[in-house]
Amino acid sequence: VIDDAQWLDRASAEALAFVARRLLAEPVVLLFATREPSDLAAGLPELLLEGLGNADARALLSSVVPGKLDKRIAEQIIAETRGNPLALLELPRGLSAAQLAGGFGLPGALSLSGRIERSFLRRLEALPEDARGLLLVAAAEPTGDPALLWRAAERLAIGAPALEPAEAAGLIDVGARVRFRHPLVRSALYRAAAPQERRRAHGALAEATDAQIDPDRRAWHLAAATAGPDEAVASELEHAASRAQARGGLAAAAAFQERAVQLTSDQALRAQRALAAAQTKYEAGALEDALELLDIADAGAYRAGQRARVDLLRAQIAFASRRGSDAPLLLLDAARELERTDPKIARATYLDAFSAARFAGPLARGADLVKVSQAALAGPPLPPAPRPSDLLLQGLAVQITRGYAAGAPLLRSALTAFQREPALPPDQARWLSLALWAAADLWDDDTFRRLTTRELERAREVGALTAIPLALSMLSYIHATSGDLASAESHLEEIRSASEAIGTPAQPYIALWVAAMRGRETETLDLIRATNQEALARGEGYVMFVTEHVTAVLYNGLGRYSEALAALRRQAVDPSYRDGSPRPMAELVEAAVRSGEHQLAALALERLTATTDAAGTDWALGIEARSRAMVSDGETADALYRDAIARLSRTSIRVQLARAHLLYGEWLRRERRRRDARQQLRTALEMFTSMGTEGFADRSRRELSATGERARRRSVETREDLTPQEAQIARMAGDGLSNAEIGARLFVSQSTVAYHLRHVFSKLNIASRHQLAQALPDPAAQR
After folding, report:
1. Reduced to 3 states, what is the DSSP secondary structure of residue 173?
2. pLDDT of 680-719, one tens digit each?
3. How many CA atoms, within 13 angstroms, populate the side-chain half-sphere of residue 666?
4. For an engineered disulfide with 523, which of 179, 515, 646, 685 has Cβ 3.0 to 4.6 Å away?
5. How many other β-carbons are positioned within 10 Å of the β-carbon of residue 658?
6. Contact 411/387 with Cβ under 8 angstroms?
7. CB-based contact 693:518 (threshold 8 Å)
């Protein structure tokens, strides 16, 4: 039972709520009581408790009021307390007989909690001085350790007799633990004490706390006992912050650092400590607090390097909080400032700026990818022993400024360097997402899969929760765009679970890709509207690249080429799109050819081949051959289609291979080679059906019917009656994972895994996990 849950710290509240949502199959109940509805209850069953009815409230009130209670006063108390049982019990205790009899001198307008606190304070004021002092010490020490309480009381010359009147007044109970009657007792008496009284209590607690056993709590009490600046205490708080960070307690470390700032008088040192506290607040997710501390750091930052770090953190906060169009310029300015004092951090900041500019896309204000790349190349040169991130920055900057072909060799070297280090240090692992972006733009599906899978395994092994959602999203992306929709879809639940665990929104793009690849128009368009609205509001222009590409895939699959063309036309002719991904150009070639806009198709093909020739992978050259075949005739087109099929069959991008069979079959039918066309179209239909790409499957079926062969509609081999979580668990169990391993990945218990598997077995009409392989579609069959 978590009573008064509104007073939980944020980290504890999120942890408890996360556990509560996963107790589906456990013989455990977690009960939260809170004053007002809150986000804590999201996804949990709720029971809203109203106040007692008038009759019950009147009976409870009468039970604690000696003598006669004026009826009108009773009704007023009941009305004002709204039937709150605690208020009905506590309010009358502080009222005189005259007030209860006729209402003379009833308290003025106070909040209900304020009135209850006033009731407790009236009882406190009637206590002897030693009893009040003992209660204050107890209020200042939240651990509830009675031994610590008595050691501190001894230093204030307060003896055991002081406890009796406090217990008799019903304010406190000291047994195995120190417990107040109500949390409002603690807060009321702590706030009512004079500042010097509070400092005296904390000083006694600091003296009574063992510096070897609990140095951090001792430092905190010392800080609370200190009225003005004190360098010795501030230094102790810094040590406490270091210990907290070492054990992963970012929120506690930030609190120690923030208090150290308040106790520092030297302006330069105060600025240094404020910057450190702001950095920790930022890492802990307290962005508003971090900005306030940055203002303090900014005011005292006299050295160029320090001011540059202030600007860098301000820019990083802007990017983290909004991922908007202003972040690239802020990060670019910070990188330029850092060049003079710390070239290593400057290069890392240029990568930050590059990432921010890519997210901002055509909405970037003052610092697009070209400007960031030019500044990075003009900045610190490559070090003698370049790290993977150094090579990545160089390759990205060269690619943007000098062309795809010039940057490709450098980016391949960077990807090789990332692969060469089996365990990337944190300062290098953070750039993996940019490296994967580069791998996709290099049409390198093998490297993309290898790096993503390795990072996901590493994140799971070390419990790096912040890295898991990104790694899963990247892996799901390559699954979705390869046509392995079942795997991509099954990861959505794991992404949601991991994102919820760290309190971040789940990445929206994977669900969008899955819906589009399945050919579900309404679902895709709804997701696009929601994604665009949220991302564009904060200036995340990258969303336009994705949603336009996704829209084109959807409508090419449905055979509605003019709508696919409309979605991508801007990416071919708008200069602000020149640095976008090359992959949408293949969709544009198909849509333009089918719409009769051959000039636009030629332009898209030119942009496409500028990347595919330099990449040189089977994925790249297969897509190029397929696209070039669409603008060719006769034997040339035939040879190109065959080349595309041969190359794409050597890749993991199976949906593109199926599309090559489809386009070749369509071309053969128009060449009146119906028998050959049927062979290609049957292959395409079988592949699309097994993958669940319903739009492309229907398009293949229509083309096959046009050859004179009746194509019977076959249901896609998916189990629509399984929930997403059931499907994910079933697939993991079918892959041989134990209940414990599945539970660890999905952040649920083994009992919950078993609970879901029982439902899976029932729905699939099987008896054991050994039958899952036959009951579920085989991803390998889709390849």
Report:
1. strand
2. 999 999 999 989 899 999 999 999 999 988 766 654 444 4
3. 20
4. 515
5. 27
6. no
7. yes
Of how many residues is the chain composed?
Answer: 783
Distance CA 76, CA 83 (A): 11
DSSP string, 513-543: HHHHHTT-HHHHHHHHHHHHHHHHHTT-THH
Token pair 């900014």 is found at 298
Of 495, 501, 486, 412, give the one whose Cα is nearest residue 456. Answer: 495
Alpha carbons within 13 angstroms on the beta-carbon side of residue 542 total 18
Closest by alpha carbon to 17, among 35, 34, 42? 42
Cβ neighbour number for residue 87 with a 10 Å cutoff: 22
- Please name the residue that has the structure tokens 């409309």: 566
CA pair distance 386, 403, nearest whole angstrom? 22
Q: Kindly report the pTM of this predicted structure.
A: 0.69
Return the axis-axis angle of helices 724-734 and 739-746, rounded to nearest 10°.
Answer: 140
Averaged pLDDT, 630-643: 96
In angstroms, rounded to a whole number, what is the distance separating the alpha carbons of residues 285 and 762? 43
693 sits in the region (left: phi over 0; alpha: psi -120 to 50; else beta) called beta
Q: Any residues with CB less than 8 A from the CB of 168 and at least 6 apart, and which?
A: none
* DSSP helix/strand/coil, 180: strand
Cα–Cα distance between 118 and 189 in angstroms, integer? 10
Beta carbons of 539 and 324 less than 8 angstroms apart: yes
Cα gap 782→778, rounded to integer Å? 7
Which region among 363-372, 455-464, 703-712 has the lowest average model confidence (pLDDT)? 455-464
What does pLDDT average to over the chain? 84
Alpha helices in 361-430 (DSSP H): 369-378, 388-402, 404-420, 426-429
Local structure of 340: helix, strand or coil: coil
3-class state of residue 781 by DSSP:
helix
Residues 285-343 have pLDDT tens digits of: 677 888 899 999 988 877 767 778 888 888 877 776 666 677 888 889 888 988 888 89
The residue ranking higher by pLDDT, 721 or 384, is 384
Contact 305, 338 (CB under 8 A): yes
What percent of the chain clears pLDDT 70, i.e. is strictly above it?
Answer: 88
At position 730, the amino acid (one-letter code) is: A
